[in-house]
Write a structure and sequence with these properties.
Its EC number is 4.2.1.6. This is D-galactonate dehydratase. GO terms for molecular function: galactonate dehydratase activity. By secondary structure, this protein is of the alpha/beta class. The protein is built from 13 helices and twelve strands. The mean pLDDT is 96.
């Protein structure tokens, strides 16, 4: 079996364009991959066009190790976000093709299931006014939907420091969410790499009474010594990794023990096989995996197949119950969250199909999403 061509589609919303890759083969079997590129969709599409000519067309979709090696090494450039995202979309589609060709779910090809359901947490639910009352009501809707875990960034447009007024306001939001959901629901605190170490440490101390499940990216991702400094000054687990793009990027993180939970985004870091390698190394360092996922059902399904086979998996991020729910119409087949868990996905392949008519109703949008702009949490496109 050989890959004959790639088709690309862009599913648009006001804050994220989801690039879908459909890989075609000479056997008539097709596979799907997907990635959300934050404000870099054209760069991704351009890379895919060149990579198709240089590496992808004519490849055997069963030989993902060869594909990964060629796309990472033979261009003689250090693979970064664009290259690893393009690779991931194609690589995930290759697993989908393999599963369809063999009539099995992808997780059976990755070593088989080690669990019969997959814990999920909700994101995208706090698209409301930034008040304690509105955040509490929104959090209540998450629990009513069956989730037992949720993530929130309460810090507005904060960067490096947070003044006393904004600190008070942010803590009030977390307190309101905790009161609304009770003591047994996990609350993950997202920081989006906003703060310097001193501010992150101060906020960690103030947040401890609300028992967060983790602090996510408390400092910018480039300086792992700064992250280790934060980790040394809090008992709250530290999560990071969504902006690391190769398994080699994690070496210093493992050595410094600067984090407790890895949030690799499989759609930005080469796909499923690379994530399996990373998870194995993480397991040898006693770290848990909680993959970042801001994609649609195709991306989520790929993550579920990874989670099914990963011993040190913790929990899976999910947006599409609370943000742009129409994406589920465009990519049908993902199982629903029930009592806080996804059931194992059913194959063959990823278990997702593409509704081209629904997709055509949501074309690409002009997106400039800025997490450091006022009102970003409403997830509307930024101006300019």
């Amino acid at each position: 079996m050989k890959i004959t061509k790639l088709s690309t589609y862009v599913l648009g919303t006001s804050w994220r364009n989801l690039t879908i890759v459909e890989v075609h083969t000479d056997a008539g079997v097709t596979g799907l991959g997907e990635v959300r590129m934050l404000n870099h969709t054209d760069a991704l599409l351009g890379f895919l066009a060149e990579a198709t000519e240089n590496h992808i067309r004519g490849s055997d979709p069963f030989e993902v190790e060869s594909l990964v090696h060629r796309m990472m090494r033979l261009d003689y450039a250090r693979a970064g976000e664009i290259a690893m995202s393009a690779l991931a979309a194609v690589e995930i589609a290759c697993w989908d093709i393999q599963g369809k060709a063999l009539d099995v779910p992808v997780y059976r090809l990755l070593g088989g299931a080690v669990r019969d359901r997959i814990k999920a947490y909700a994101n995208g639910w706090y698209q409301v006014e930034r008040t304690p009352e509105e955040f509490a009501a929104a959090a209540g809707r998450v629990v009513a939907r069956g989730y037992r875990a949720m993530k929130v960034d309460p810090f507005g447009a904060g960067m490096f420091e947070l003044d006393r007024e904004e600190t008070t306001r942010s803590l009030e939001l977390v307190a309101a969410v905790r009161e609304a959901v009770g003591p047994d629901v996990e609350i993950m605190i997202e920081m989006h790499g906003r703060f310097n170490p001193a501010t992150a440490i101060r906020l960690a101390g103030l947040l401890e009474p609300y028992d967060p499940a983790w602090l996510e990216e408390p400092v910018p991702p480039e300086n792992l010594a700064a992250l280790a400094k934060v980790a040394a000054h809090t008992t709250i687990p530290i999560a990071t990794g969504e902006r690391m793009h190769t398994r080699y990027d994690y070496r210093e993180l493992f050595e410094s023990q600067a984090a407790d939970i890895l949030q690799t985004d499989i759609t930005h870091s080469g796909g499923l096989w690379e994530a399996k390698k990373l998870a194995a190394t993480a397991e040898s360092h006693y770290l848990l995996m909680a993959p970042h996922n801001v994609g649609g059902p195709i991306s989520t399904a790929a993550n579920l197949h990874l989670a099914a086979t990963t011993v040190n998996f913790k929990v899976q991020e999910h947006f599409n119950d609370f943000a742009d729910v129409f994406v589920k119409d465009c990519e049908p087949g993902l199982p629903e969250v029930v009592d806080g868990y996804f059931p194992l996905p059913q194959g063959p392949g990823l278990g997702i199909s593409l509704d081209h008519e629904a997709l055509a109703r949501h074309p690409r949008q002009s997106v400039n999403f800025n997490l450091f702009s006022s009102g970003w949490e409403r997830r509307q496109a930024a101006e300019g």
